[in-house]
Amino acid sequence: MKNIIEIKGLNFKYNEKQIFKDLNLNIEEGTFTTIIGNNNSGKSTLVRILTGLEKSDSKIIIDDLILNEFNVKTIREKIGVIFENPDDNMIQDNVLDEIIFTLENMNLDKEKIKKRVDYVSTLLNIEKLLYRNVNQLSGGEKQLVLLASIIAVNTKIIILDDAFTMIDSLTKDKIYKILKKINKENKITIINITHDIEDSLFGDEIIVMNNGNIVIQENTKLFFNQEKLLKKLNIQIPFIVEVSQKLKYYNLVDNLVFDMDKLVNIIWK
Amino acid sequence: MEIVFDNVSYQNGDSYILKDINCKFENGKISAIIGPTGSGKTTLIKMINDLYKPTKGEIKIDNLNINENIDKFRHNIGFMFQFPEQQFFNKIVKEELEFNLKIFNYRINEIDKRVKDSLKMVGLNESYLNLNPLSLSNGDRRKIALASLLIYNPKIIILDEPTIGIDDSSKRNFIKLIKMLKNRYNKTIIIVSHDIELIHKLADNIIVLNEGNIVSYGNKYDVFKNGRQLKKYGLLQPKIILFSDKVYNKKNIKLGYRDEINDLIKDIYRNV
C-alpha cells in the first residue's frame, strides 16, 4: 500500500512558539491509526495543518497531491474531519441539511443523495434525529450527526479529533465497530486522536506524540507488548493489557491477550 | 451541605425533560449521574444552580428551598459547565479566576494567594495567569474552569463532563484532587460524565437517567452489577466489573467486585 499521508521535515510555529521541528510522518493507505499524547503535544495542530487550516511551508503530500494553495480544496474533499467541540463543526440549522450539505456541493443527484442519507441514518441509528433542529440536540447527538455527515461523503481519509467524548459507552463501542468495518471493506484511512486509551485497541497502529514529536509509531499490539517502553512513556494502558501483563507475571498466561472472552477461557481452560 | 430532590419535574411545554425525580446528594459523597445523551443529566444539575426551576416539586439544600434562597447558597455552589469556554468572559486567566472572589467580596491580599493556590490545585503554573483562556487547549480550559470554582471554596461542587479532552496524567491528578475534596473537606460532589471508568473510580452513588426518569439509583456496585439493564440505556459496565461478571457467567466462579486491578489479579490467582 502507498502512503496516503507524507509529512517531510515539518516546521511550524504558533504565536512565536515552536510547535513542530523537523517532524516526519508517513501514514499508509487503509490503516486505522490511533494518536495519543498529552495536552499541548501538537495533535490538534497537526490535524489543522493536514486539513489546510494552518499554513506551513514544509512538504506535505496527501493522496499524491502536494498540499499548497492550489490543491488545498481538492485535498479538503478527500478528508472528513470531526473536531473536538461539535459546535465548531455544525454549519446548518437542521440535521438533514447538515448531512446533505457537502453531498449537494458535490453535485450528486437527488436520488443518490437520498440513498446516502438513508444508508448513514440506518447505519448510525439516527433516523429519529433527521428533522430536528441542530440546537436542540445534546452534545452526543451532535457528534453522531457529524459522523453521519462525513461517512455520507465517503472521503478517502477520516480524521477524528476526540470526536466521541459525549457519546455513551455502548454507542461508542458500536461506532468503533462500524468504523473498523468501513476501514477494512472500503480501505478508508482512519486517524483517531483520543484520550481514552481503551479506544486504541480498535486501531491497528498507534502513534504517541509528545511536545511536538512523534515518540513512536508502531503496530498497536506490538506496542503494548513492550512493557519497559510503556513504563517509560508513563501512559495509561488498556484494562485488558494491564490484566494480562500482570497475569503473565504470575505465569497464568503466556502472552498478552487482547480480548476479554479469550482471556477468561485461557485462565480457566 | 445536603441536596434533596423532592418529586421534582421539569417541563418544557408539554414534554417532560425530567419527571418525578426523588434523590439525595450527601455531604462527603461523590454522586454520579449517568445515562444516554439527551436523558436530562445536564438539566438536572442545572436545577441545583437555579438555572432551571422545577415546574413541580421542590429542591432543598439543608432543608431550605433552593430557588427561594439562591442568594444565600450562590457562593457555596461551584458549577463547571460542559463547555468551559461558555463560562469565560475575561481576557486573561488571572481576571477569570479573580472574578468570583471579587463578587463574593474577598479581601485584596487574600485574592492573590487564592489565585496561585487554585492554579496549583489543578496542576498549572503561574505562567498561565496572563494568557487568554480562549487561547488554551480544551484540556487546559477545563482546568482553568475547575480552578475558577475551587478558588472560592464552595461546599457543593458540580462538574459536567469534567475530563473531556484532558490527558492521562491530568486525569489521574483530577481523580486525586476530587477524592481529596471529598475525604478531607467533606464536599458534596456531583459529576456528570460519559466516562464510565472515571465514574467507577470516583463515585460512591450513581443515578441512571433515561428519558427524564430515574431508572436506577444506589451505591455504585448495585448499579454497575446490572449489566443487562445498563445496556438497555446505552451504557456499558466498567471493564473490571464486566470481567468479574464474565468469569461468573462462563465459569461459575464468583470473584466479587473490585476497584483495583491488583486486587482482581489476587482474586484470579486464588481461584485458578
Describe this structure in words.
The complex is a heterodimer of chains A (269) and B (272). Chain A is α/β, with parallel strands linked by helices and 269 residues long. Chain A has helices spanning 43-50, 72-78, 86-89, 95-105, 110-123, 139-153, 169-186, 220-224, 227-233, 239-249, 260-267; strands spanning 3-14, 17-28, 32-37, 59-62, 65-66, 79-82, 157-161, 189-193, 205-210, 213-219. In chain A, helix 4 (95-105) runs parallel beside helix 6 (139-153) and helix 5 crosses helix 6. The longest helix of chain A has 18 residues, at 169-186. The model of chain A has no long low-confidence stretch (mean pLDDT 92). Chain B is an alpha/beta fold. Chain B is 40% helix and 22% strand. Chain B has 11 helices and 10 strands. Chain B has helices at residues 41-48, 70-73, 93-103, 108-121, 138-150, 168-183, 196-202, 220-224, 227-232, 239-251, 261-271, and strands at residues 3-12, 15-25, 30-34, 56-61, 64-65, 77-80, 156-160, 188-192, 205-210, 213-219. In chain B, strands 6-7-8-3-9-10 form a 6-stranded mixed sheet, sandwiched between helices. A 4-stranded antiparallel sheet of chain B has the order 2-1-4-5, with helices on one face. In chain B, a hairpin with a 2-residue loop joins strand 4 and strand 5. In chain B, helix 4 (108-121) crosses helix 5. The radius of gyration of chain B is 20 Å and the shape is globular. The mean pLDDT of chain B is 93. Chains A and B meet through helix 6, helix 7, helix 10 and helix 11 of A and helix 5, helix 6, helix 10 and helix 11 of B.
